Amino acid sequence: MAAGTYTAQMSVSRWTGRWRLYVALLGVPSSQWPEYEFGGSVVPTVAARSRALNKLGYAFTDDAEWTWTEDSAVPDDAASPVLLIASAAVREAGP
């Protein structure tokens, strides 16, 4: 990843059941990462994600694409609920 580039991720909060978007910052405790929680349980549109990133002070890189990964709530348990995590490359937004 290029200097000045970060990873934005989006997943469903296990506490609220709502989609949340956050920017992972290396060397910073995850409790201090910029985060935005969407108001519902429907997957936010790309436009809504872009607006949320802008509110956090970030923007998509020119070549950014959302990629989706499956995880499980209980590792190595095929019956465990699937957790979806989306990620995209972002940069700090200019003034």
Question: What is the secondary structure topology, with strand pairs?
Answer:
Layout: E1 5-12, E2 19-24, E3 35-37, H1 46-56, E4 58-60, E5 67-72, E6 82-92
Antiparallel strand pairs: 1-2, 1-6, 2-3, 4-6, 5-6
Could you characterize what this model shows?
- The protein has 95 residues and is mainly beta.
- Helices cover 12% and strands 39% of the residues.
- It contains one helix and six strands; from the N terminus they run E-E-E-H-E-E-E.
- The protein has one helix at residues 46-56, and strands at residues 5-12, 19-24, 35-37, 58-60, 67-72, 82-92.
- The mean pLDDT is 91.
Structural class: mainly beta
Which radius of gyration do the C-alpha atoms yield? 14 Å
Percent helix among the residues?
10-25%
Number of strands: 6
- What is the general shape? globular
> Which spans have pLDDT < 50 for at least 5 consecutive residues?
none
Terminal CA distance? 23 Å
Calculate the mean pLDDT score and round it: 91
DSSP helix count? 1
How can the largest sheet be summarized?
6 strands, antiparallel
- Strand share of the residues? 35-45%
SSE order: EEEHEEE
Q: How would you briefly describe this protein structure?
A:
This protein has 95 residues and is mainly beta.
Question: What attributes does this structure have?
Answer:
single chain; 95 residues; mainly beta; 6-stranded antiparallel β-sheet; 12% helix
